[in-house]
Amino acid sequence: MLGPVILAASRSDRMRRLVTAAPGTKQVVDRFIPGETVGDVLPIVRELTEQGLELTMDVVGEDITTPEQAEAARDAYLELIARLEELELGARVEMSVKLSMFGQDLENGVELSRANVRPVVEAAAAIGTTVTLDAEDHTTIDKMLATHAWLREDFPQTGCVIQAMLYRTEEDARALAASGSRVRVVKGAYKEPAEVAYQSKAEIDKAYVRIMKILMEGDGYPMIGSHDPRMISIGQELARRAGRKMDEYEFQMLFGIRGDESLRLAAEGHRMRVYTAYGTDWYGYFMRRLAEKPSNLRFFLRSMVSKG
Asked: What whole-number distance in Å separates Cα of residue 256 and Cα of residue 220?
């Protein structure tokens, strides 16, 4: 039950200082976050696309406290899109964004975040790609979905993320599984109370399968965000039963996790997208990766001991 403890630590300034100062941290961070700047990460982008993979890029950072920081986040994505255009990679790489990075939690946050995210969506569309709005904790879901609907009025290819652990998500999936929609389903990486979310892995897994079935039988484009071999196998079977071709859905995995499986799925003809994060404000993202999988935490602790 270390996951909830680690997720709580992801919001702790004291733990942030301890983890970032630990001698083994960089080795593990590099496993999940391949760089701090666009220049650092573009060689990885080229390498992965040459291997037949697609990507979704995340400029990490969530603790936005001023409008100026939100604008800086917007500008970081615009720089990324400009560099992707130079490399003619627009068709292979999309963006994942958290609306909190664009100021959603600040005063007049919905308006501020929309003013910041729209230029990113416009720029992405101009180079032949799109943006997916990441899910955050349950208190933000209604605002994210409202902004998603607002963006889709002019950019119908805009995607969104739903989390299987939340009770509400099956209903959300039914509403979203419409023609032209792009919906990524994940298990969920935030500490949520029992009032709104399943707490056991078994219940979350069952909900994940039900949601995959809704999306596969719907009219949209399902994106299966999972490293779980069982969920991937079930996703393939649900797609087959729904009569979907391999280019009518995709799998997604995080950079640094199950890379061989990503290549295997791509070699079989599946669309396989790697969620690739970069940036300097990596702490919250990194802690959620540790919480998701015990082996990630063990690797981190071994690194700390070996470097200490």
From this structure: 28
